[in-house]
Hints:
Blueprint: E1 6-13, H1 16-27, E2 30-31, E3 45-49, E4 55-61, H2 64-68, E5 74-80, H3 84-93, E6 97-105, E7 108-114, E8 120-126, E9 148-155, H4 158-169, E10 171-178, E11 184-190, E12 194-201, E13 210-216, H5 220-229, E14 233-234, E15 239-241, E16 245-251, E17 257-262
Helix pairs in contact: 1-5
Amino acid sequence: xxxxxxxxxxxxxxxxxxxxxxxxxxxxxxxxxxxxxxxxxxxxxxxxxxxxxxxxxxxxxxxxxxxxxxxxxxxxxxxxxxxxxxxxxxxxxxxxxxxxxxxxxxxxxxxxxxxxxxxxxxxxxxxxxxxxxxxxxxxxxxxxxxxxxxxxxxxxxxxxxxxxxxxxxxxxxxxxxxxxxxxxxxxxxxxxxxxxxxxxxxxxxxxxxxxxxxxxxxxxxxxxxxxxxxxxxxxxxxxxxxxxxxxxxxxxxxxxxxxxxxxxxxxx
Length: 268
């Protein structure tokens, strides 16, 4: 992997028990129970594992102070970088913002930033691994059930965002799909991970901006039914996308947006 690879996904939530049941039922994940906290480690952080045993991401339980500071439920990606501090400085110098200073844990060094349009994401330099016999399994894998299958940035300035992510993370424009009055849907590629997602314009002031993560399911119709049964909301109908897939936009029980992507039942 290299600078700009998607290497982790974090769900920020203020309703950990409700979303645990939701994601385990919809995506087949296993999410750890409450993590012990102390004065030294005040954060309740819970790991997510896919059905194949791979660590897919984490759940950050929002504290009252975080919520008071403006944190809201949502999914945030982590991008691999060679040097967290240097990348933070470059991003701030290019119109972005530092939201959380650099910190280190056994798993690596990380910081939280925004792009110039205000979309938050993390930077991550993994720590040294004890077992170097094989690389870790990817958390972004378009065709793996339970993995992130698409990363979509909603922004007020697609051209500016494309330039920003190209300069700092090696993303490139891999084609454009016109959407009529809604503007263009610009596909993104990364030098190591290949096709990784797309950028699209924010369609109205009420439409939230930022990164939107889509996760693959084996049966999208069954998953959509589970969304409703487990306290989530489907935002519209299941819809086809180029390539023969199907998607549906979803809010989890705490209001975090995600997408589900799958194939028609006859193709599963």
